[in-house]
Amino acid sequence: MIGSDDDVRAVFAEEYETLRPKLLESAFVEMDPVVDGFAGVFVELVRMGERYVLRQTAVGSGNRLLEISLVDEQLARIFFEEELYR
């Protein structure tokens, strides 16, 4: 037997919250347009459900340059830090 409408809504609301992206960290990395081809990138670490997503986006164009999805949070944070200081 299916529960009440409130029970069904609560289950879907909880599931939605776990899948909704949560921004963990973000940073702007300034670059030389002559050398690198663009003025800078926006780097963000987002939690999406059970995974951690590292994204790098060109600031001027909005083009996604990198997107990596990882299960290990520590490894995702290491990659995030590496993107900031390379």
Q: What is the overall shape?
A: elongated
Sheet with the most strands, sense and barrel status: 4 strands, antiparallel
| Average predicted local confidence, pLDDT | 86
Structural class: alpha+beta
Taking strands numbered 1, 2, ... along the chain, how are they ordered across the largest sheet?
A: 1-2-3-4
What is the CATH domain class? Alpha Beta
What do these coordinates show?
The chain has 86 residues and is α+β, with helices and mostly antiparallel strands. It has a single domain (21-84), classed as 2-Layer Sandwich (Viral Envelope Glycoprotein, domain 2). It is 36% helix and 38% strand. It has 3 helices and 4 strands, in the order H-E-H-E-E-E-H.
In short:
The chain is α+β, with helices and mostly antiparallel strands. The protein has helices at 5-19, 33-36, 73-84; strands at residues 22-30, 40-48, 51-58, 64-70.
